[in-house]
Amino acid sequence: MNSQLRRTPVPDLIRLSLSAGLVTLSAHSFADTDGPSGYSDKPLETVVVTGNRARGTQRTITDSPAPIDVIKGEELQRQTSAGLTAALNSLLPSFNLPAIPGGGSSSMVRPAGLRGLNADQTLVLVNGKRRHTTALVNISSYMNNGSQPADLDLIPVSAVDHIEVLRDGAAAQYGSDAIAGVINIILKNADQGGNSTTTLGHNYGSGGAVTTQALNLGTALPNSGFINFALDVRSQNKANRADKALGDFYNPLPDGSPDPRESTVSRDISWSYGQPRYELLNASYNAELPLDDVTSLYSFSTFSIRKSEAGASYVRPNSLSGNSSRYPDGYLPIREIEEHDWQTAVGARGEINAWAWDLSSTYGRNKAWLSSRNDFNPSFGDASGTNFDQGSQTAEQLTSNLDFTRSFDIGLAKPLDVSFGVEHRYEKFSIGAGDEDSYASGGYVIPTGPYAGIAPPAGSTASSGFRPEEANSDSRNNYAGYLDLGFNPTAKWYVGVAGRLEHYDDDAGDSASGKLSTRYELTPQFSLRATVSNGFRAPSIAQSIYASSWTRTLVTGPGTSTSYDVKVLPVDSPAAKALGAEALKPEKSLNYSVGFTYEPLANLRLTTDAYLIKITDRIVEASVLSGPAVSDILAANGLQSDIAAQFYTNAIDTRTHGVDVVLDYLQNYGKFGSVKWSAGLNWNKTKVTDVKDTPAALAALGSSYTLFDYEAQSDLSKGSPTSKFVLSGNWQVGDFTVNLRGTRYGEYFQASAGGRAYDRTWSPTWITDLDIDYAITSQLKVAIGANNLFDKYPDKIGPITGQGVNGYGLYSPYGLTGGYYYSRLSLDF
Asked: I need a labelling partner for 224 at 20 to 30 A (CA). Which of 286, 417, 693, 772 fits?
């Protein structure tokens, strides 16, 4: 029963890297600008590749028929808090990221989405190639429940040249998952020089120190080729905002009377309310080797090791799961996760008979080992161990592509762009069983006291390990072909048409997607653009076969709460079928977008886009099902009867509508430098338009059972802010660069499973970030800064549980840990 969490010496690697590093802030240069004044002929023009397969056609942000954001690597490097996910949340108005999405693995893989949709409804690419997903399913999550997205934080920030974010449905171009849009991470391709950056930061008053070392180095290869290396190591301490619990360390006795040992002394019995502790190593390379004037070999890869830990639920010493001889004051189990992540792409591109071709294969694998310490299996009594291996989860993906593109002069204002290609994708998801002691029943019966004669629950209390019958593996193949056409009926009018056919060899079946996009230039400065498309997201394998347990906590009064175990059932298991579960089918979407771009000056750009996204058969986790009828079904299928149950289901249809507005303005103040002003607004609203009829098997158990209840609907439609406004100014003067950003997060809502009396609405809040950078020399720069400069917290209006958590709520988009202050030093070489 020894924990395997420390199977790799990551702390040693972190200490070695930090000892070679400096302490710092990387210099910021204006995005899309040349020279110290920040001006070129077209200072705001940026060429983008996402959504555009035509090799000979260059598009800028304003030329694109669909909205695209571009985030430069320098901007990402300034966002010091916690990797790419948090950086994009700071910079993109349309990006939504809850601070604490849930317990368990959700604390590490924070599910972030575009335009108010789920994380797994946004496709992630690296250098235009599909990124694999995490093995960690967002279970016991308040938002994005059941999602299994790509983990952006396992890509080194120092490796990123820029990120292109396509805010539009793109399933016809890229396949499954691109309902909300596409995030394309472009890696650096420098063939010389490099950078070393070290950052030290700390939250104000809540712990959570973060230390980061980032290294980047480019080297030339023959024939003007390159290979670019990157290494990021990061160490984050836990930050905790839980209140001390007062006199809530013992349960009442079975007859309802207070335990005579009850204390009125305040104690800390939780540290999972804030941010988890983790250690992370990310490494990568990006390489290209030309063979002749038209043919090149290329490859890129990322590799990561991450170890994390977070507190589970405190176990009271006189509870049925307590053990006063081993833990006389109760105990707080610690969940541990170790992940190994790897992605490698190899390919070749060239030209034959005027056709540009690209052949590639990309393999990605994420494996996570789950364990716990300071834990206990009460069914073994005093013989129980305290450390458990609870099993493993593995996600694998192998994607192969062959793409062709060519332009034809057919007598139109511009050549016809033709692109087509085929794709094969193999996916596999596996669950490995835990140690027997992590799930088994030891047969212990409490001999004396108020619980005399009662057998305690089986399994480790942090989270029961995967049983052999839950250990499972499944795989599937996907075959796809697409055709993408782009043409100009007139010099000012562009039309794009794309179509894609997909076939899965499992229950996901066949899907067809199409997209029509257009852009019309009314004047050289003002253009209209619009898109309409349909898309899909195939259910993940994990959503069909995943089985696990989690603990649900309900607030039952001021400072009091109750908890019970919930079993997530595979949809094809006998128990799930008896409760009405059916095989999952793909989500289907219809996307509409209309907007305009306006560039009255070379240094001023405004884009505005309204959108409507309708999703049918949306996959969600069914409401928590409990009660005598459910208990009978669980017991009849060999499961514990004193637990609740859930499963994944195509339960709802939704409608999301909103608007994105982005303004960039570059001003030159002469000897007082130049300032790039940016303003971005996203407003969106999601509504559940239909909840599927309760399955007959479930309806037969009683009228109180529903497939998707009030709490779940509220979390999905109101848990994220309805609006997000980002206003920033980047001032470059002499050797100083100052970046000031204010972000207004709109109102959001948290429903309570304990009753509507505990529902809460959090008010809008402004968060201010400041970064001041000074160039000591042309190569050495130092900076200080703050995220959440004024140490703002959400309203403390949540109903606090018996463990002292929830006062600030759970959904805050800017976190619960207040101000984060840092210093950095950067050396270019």
From this structure: 417
Q: How far is CA 34 from CA 45, 47, 73, 281, 729, in A?
A: 11, 15, 16, 34, 18
Residues 6+ apart with CB under 8 A from 431: 391, 392, 393, 466, 470, 471, 472, 473, 545, 546, 547
Q: In this predicted structure, which of 178-192, 209-223, 699-713 has the lowest mean pLDDT? A: 699-713
Quote the number of domains for the chain. Answer: 1
The domain of 462 spans 10-828
Q: If we measure between CA atoms, which residue out of 74, 91, 22, 28 comes closest to residue 787?
A: 91
pLDDT tens column, 779-804: 999 999 999 999 999 999 988 877 88
**Hey, CA dihedral for 63, 67, 73, 77, is it positive or negative?**
positive
Largest Cα separation within the chain, whole Å, is 93
State pTM to two decimals: 0.90
Phi first, then psi, for residue 715 (nearest 5°) are -60, -40
- Cα–Cα separations (whole angstroms), residue 42 to 32, 39, 134, 269: 8, 8, 40, 58
The C-alpha atoms of residue 796 and residue 805 are separated, in whole angstroms, by 11
How confident is the model at residue 189, as a pLDDT? 96
How high is the pLDDT of residue 142? 67
* Cα separations in angstroms, 778 against 27, 633, 676, 733: 10, 71, 21, 14
Q: Tens digits of per-residue pLDDT, 299-329?
A: 999 999 999 998 888 888 888 888 888 898 8
Asked whether 422 and 480 are in contact (CB, 8 A), the reply is yes
The residue among 52, 53, 56 whose CA lies nearest residue 420 is 53
Question: Whole-number mean pLDDT of the chain?
Answer: 87
DSSP state of 135: S
Measured CA to CA, the distance from residue 46 to residue 165 in angstroms comes to: 13
What lies within 8 Å, CB to CB, of 186 at 6+ separation is 49, 127, 160, 161, 162, 163, 164
User: Per-residue b/e over 303-337, b at no fewer than 16 CB within 10 Å?
Assistant: bbbbbbbbbbbbbbbbbbbbbeeebeebbbbbbbb
* Residue listed under structure tokens 């047969």: 443
- Give the pLDDT of residue 274: 85
Assess if residue 2 is contained within a domain: no
**CATH for 369:** 2.40.170.20
Mention every residue, 6+ apart, whose C-beta is less than 8 A from residue 211.
Answer: 14, 18, 198, 199, 200, 201, 234, 235
3-state secondary structure of 13: helix
Smallest CA-to-CA distance from 3 within 356, 318, 369 is with 369
In whole angstroms, what is the distance from residue 433 CA to residue 438 CA? 10
The verdict on residue 1 lying in a domain is: no
Q: Distance between CA 303 and CA 533 in Å, rounded?
A: 35
Report the alpha-carbon distance of residue 495 to residue 409 in Å, rounded.
16
Residue 37 confidence (pLDDT):
37
Query: Is 4 domain-assigned?
Result: no
Mean pLDDT of 3-12: 45
Does the structure show a pLDDT above 90 at 12? no
How large is the average pLDDT for residues 491-511?
95
DSSP codes of every residue in 485-503? EEEEEETTEEEEEEEEEEE
Would 5 be classed as within a structural domain?
Answer: no
